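ok so I'm stuck.
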Amino acid sequence: MIEELDATAEEEQPSIPLDKLTEIYIKIRDTRQAKARAFDAEDKLLEEQMQMIEGQMLEICKRNNASSIRTENGTVIRQVKSRYWTNDWDSMYSFIKDNNAFGLLEKRLHQTHMKEFLSENPDKLPMGLNVEREYTITVRRSS
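replied:
not stuck anymore, here's the structure
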């Protein structure tokens, strides 16, 4: 697969000089970052306003001992949301193993840790492990 990427890269030579492509890339990246910061700032204000309104809605539902209230513009639903976490992973892993409750874990691999494990243990390749590699580009500014 890597050989295919090399062959493709050799066939497709850009008509714009690499230095110009780099300049354009950095300008686009900077513009995206500026727009993302502006969006994040505006979105944070909107989120704070929504949280304030949600607090008022929760208080109204509580006062009326209601799990939902229908209005002309929509229905407000009050529900209990539960979140679970642990501060003792060793005990949690033991609990999961002892109860054969592996469904309590999310099914994903920590990418950095898997890469480190494989580099330290090249002879221990887990069954069913898939690896996808692709070339990427990183652009750094000139100093």
